[in-house]
Amino acid sequence: MRKLLTLYTSLLIAATVGNAQAQVRIEISGVGSHQIPVAVATFANEGVSPQKVSEIIKADLERSGAFKIIDANTVSDVNNIDYSGWKAKGANALVVGTIDALANGRYDVRYRLFDTIKQEKMSNLDKSVTAQFTRLSAHLIADDVFLKLTGIRGIFSTRISYVKEEGGQYLLMVADADGENEQLALRSNESIISPSWSPDGTKLAYVSFEQNKPVVYVQNLITRARTVVANEKGNNSAPAWAPSGNKLAVALSKDGHTQIYTVNADGSGLRRISNSADIDTEPQWSADGQSIYFTSNRSNSAQIYRMNPDGGEAKRVTFSSGEKTSPRISADGKTLAYISHRDGNYQLFTLDLASSQEQRLSDATDDESPSFAANGKYILYATRAGDRKSLAVVSVDGLVKQRLTTKAGDIKEPAWGPYMQ
């Protein structure tokens, strides 16, 4: 929690360097196959808070597609819950809370979650926060509700990054998972691509063309310090963090054709790990650190392979029709996401690695850059709507879909951040 607050504080300070004017807007379509009815009461004394905490909680839960939200007025006495009355209103669970302004400029946020069926309290959270963290406290409460009612950890307090192309400039942005609290990490006149979060969520690796060629950097989001990780002859691209956080996999063309290398996060210890006569690129580490997935054309078309992080024999993973690019592996190692080129379209697919069952998750024609949420239940990706590039989120079962847009400019190259400890 302390690290998360430190990161938020640092990002808010960094935001004074410059903020984009257009915030991300979310459109939701579809719901889960089974929605849990939850009543979310307006928090008592919520008017004293700079953020409407209960509204943020409701928006988070609704966006997930897993809940049917029942609006409710303030519950004044949390010690005497009318369980039968709430059950009669169709609520299986009840969220209540209070917010009190303290003399030191802080806010006391208190929340309770009740099970109306078992007629018992399920959870509670009490936090004293500064004004800038009232939004974060709402996301944390939504995370707790999601966990207690589904058994799956919520991702509302995680962060996302993306590149916004606006007015001839490229802006590397960081925002809350709902697109709010948008902060500028880097501004450049040249392209920025392939952002990748460090496992602890305090750094971003990315590729910048500011030296008139692709170079891999790591930027500390707290100190804003940048480190050149790969600036070899030719192209330096596709950084991906190892789960340990002390090294990255990158794709370099220093030896004539693109191959995969590992490198320490400070730029030392460069080591080639793929050795094919073809193009090997877009490496992605599995969460257990035992495998690297990557794209290769060694089978005469782009397909996805897996190899040991120390190199050695690569095994082909995808076999269906169409070229496959941009492999991403879920945290539990069970699901592979990628972009497949079929019938002239580039669309988001997933592959169940145990059953080899493939599923198309997008109806668009120009998808790119998928990124799993930390709980593995949602995928963030870039797509095209008309003549504009935007972001989209889809649940891994394909039932819940969101579109994230801005009033001006294109947004692309998304990456979903990890859980902060």
From TrEMBL:
<dbReference type="GO" id="GO:0017038">
    <property type="term" value="P:protein import"/>
</dbReference>
<keyword id="KW-0131">Cell cycle</keyword>
<comment type="function">
    <text>Part of the Tol-Pal system, which plays a role in outer membrane invagination during cell division and is important for maintaining outer membrane integrity.</text>
</comment>
<dbReference type="InterPro" id="IPR011659">
    <property type="entry name" value="WD40"/>
</dbReference>
<feature type="signal peptide">
    <location>
        <begin position="1"/>
        <end position="22"/>
    </location>
</feature>
<dbReference type="InterPro" id="IPR014167">
    <property type="entry name" value="Tol-Pal_TolB"/>
</dbReference>
<keyword id="KW-0132">Cell division</keyword>
<keyword id="KW-0732">Signal</keyword>
<dbReference type="Pfam" id="PF07676">
    <property type="entry name" value="PD40"/>
</dbReference>
<dbReference type="GO" id="GO:0051301">
    <property type="term" value="P:cell division"/>
</dbReference>
<feature type="domain" description="Prolow-density lipoprotein receptor-related protein 1-like beta-propeller">
    <location>
        <begin position="256"/>
        <end position="406"/>
    </location>
</feature>
<dbReference type="Pfam" id="PF16472">
    <property type="entry name" value="DUF5050"/>
</dbReference>
<keyword id="KW-0574">Periplasm</keyword>
<comment type="subunit">
    <text>The Tol-Pal system is composed of five core proteins: the inner membrane proteins TolA, TolQ and TolR, the periplasmic protein TolB and the outer membrane protein Pal. They form a network linking the inner and outer membranes and the peptidoglycan layer.</text>
</comment>
<feature type="domain" description="TolB N-terminal">
    <location>
        <begin position="24"/>
        <end position="121"/>
    </location>
</feature>
<comment type="similarity">
    <text>Belongs to the TolB family.</text>
</comment>
<dbReference type="Pfam" id="PF04052">
    <property type="entry name" value="TolB_N"/>
</dbReference>
<dbReference type="InterPro" id="IPR032485">
    <property type="entry name" value="LRP1-like_beta_prop"/>
</dbReference>
<protein>
    <recommendedName>
        <fullName>Tol-Pal system protein TolB</fullName>
    </recommendedName>
</protein>
<dbReference type="InterPro" id="IPR007195">
    <property type="entry name" value="TolB_N"/>
</dbReference>
<dbReference type="InterPro" id="IPR011042">
    <property type="entry name" value="6-blade_b-propeller_TolB-like"/>
</dbReference>
<dbReference type="GO" id="GO:0042597">
    <property type="term" value="C:periplasmic space"/>
</dbReference>
